[in-house]
Design brief:
Radius of gyration: 17 Å
Strand content: 5-15%
Number of helices: 4
Low-confidence stretches: 1-23
Structural class: alpha+beta
């Protein structure tokens, strides 16, 4: 019984540690700093989607640059990460993924005050959007 308990605890730690290590060995402090920075990029994306009429032909990168043209330094904290954007129905969502673009780490809809999803705390998930903007934005 005791051996099973230790094995279960060890497996839990191994799983948690391995998902964190694969996600670019991110630290909590680093992710909290990036979360704060992401709320600013997501707010800019929301504003651009809502008020600036972005081209439907924009790539995700084009949209991010269009959204932050007033302050391009907003994108600097995400150097070395994959930054994705989604805009539709005059709403914007931004997703931060690992450098290789395979694991999602943070996600935020610009219509909310706080960061919406700390994916880095969850088991590894593919770099795909998970926020339902219609359900989260008024």
């Amino acid at each position: 019984m005791r051996a099973h308990l230790f094995a279960l605890i060890g497996l839990t730690c191994l799983t948690a540690c391995s998902s964190l290590a694969t996600a670019q060995a991110v630290t909590e402090e680093e992710m909290l700093v990036k979360a704060s920075a992401l709320t600013k990029v997501a707010a800019a994306a929301e504003s651009a989607a809502r008020y600036k009429d972005p081209s439907p032909d924009f790539s995700e990168r084009d949209f991010l640059e269009f959204s932050t043209q007033h302050d391009p330094s907003l994108l600097e904290p995400f150097t070395g990460f994959t930054l994705r954007a989604l805009w539709r129905d005059r709403r914007g969502v931004v997703l931060v993924c690992s450098a290789d673009g395979t694991i999602r780490l943070l996600e935020d809809a610009g219509c909310t005050a706080e960061l919406d999803k700390h994916h880095w705390r969850e088991p590894e998930s593919p770099c795909e959007f998970s926020i339902d903007v219609a359900g989260i934005c008024p």
